[in-house]
């Protein structure tokens, strides 16, 4: 699950930044947030993965704490007009370097748009 989750988040970041560029002159802003490690019921696995998540629980954010960065991105006057950012702890953060690989981004965006086409 971990690898697929990480790849899906990377693809989300790539597609979101691409759309933020496309929409920049429209007044629409689009940013991606990383809420942090939040203690939710998302992972309900047994065995070693489940044990690992239980051991991480004391170091995890509460759902309320995890909501702070997404709420900041949506509601803060400081974010007005800012687009194409990746935010962690209410601050712009450097994303995975693969986000700068324009050839890869182009392929991911094109694949995503093909998957989203309506017939």
Q: Are there runs of 5+ residues with pLDDT below 50, and where?
A: none
Count of DSSP H/I helices: 5
- The SSE order reads HEHHHEEH
Q: How many individual β-strands?
A: 3
CATH superfamily: NAD(P)-binding Rossmann-like Domain
CATH structural fold name: Rossmann fold
At the first level of CATH, the class is: Alpha Beta
Structural class: mainly alpha
Strand % is 5-15%
Lateral strand order in the biggest sheet: 1-2-3
The description of the largest β-sheet is:
3 strands, mixed
Walk me through the structure.
This protein is mostly helical. The protein has helices spanning 2-23, 47-56, 63-66, 68-75, 102-116, and strands spanning 32-34, 86-88, 91-92. It has a single domain (2-116), classed as NAD(P)-binding Rossmann-like Domain (Rossmann fold), CATH 3.40.50.720. The chain contains five helices and three strands. The protein has a three-stranded mixed β-sheet, sandwiched between helices. Helix 1 crosses helix 5. The longest helix is centred in the first third of the chain and has 22 residues, at 2-23. The two termini are 30 Å apart.
């Amino acid at each position: 699950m971990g690898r697929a989750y990480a790849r899906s988040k990377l693809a989300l970041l790539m597609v979101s930044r691409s759309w933020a560029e496309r929409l920049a002159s429209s007044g629409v802003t689009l940013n991606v947030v990383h809420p942090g490690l939040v203690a939710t019921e998302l992972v309900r696995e047994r065995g070693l993965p489940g044990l690992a998540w239980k051991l991480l629980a004391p170091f995890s954010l509460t759902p309320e704490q995890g909501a702070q960065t997404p709420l900041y991105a949506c509601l803060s006057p400081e974010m007005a007009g800012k687009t194409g950012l990746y935010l962690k702890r209410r601050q712009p953060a450097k994303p995975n370097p693969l986000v700068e690989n324009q050839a890869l981004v182009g392929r991911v965006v094109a694949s995503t748009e093909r998957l989203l086409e309506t017939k």
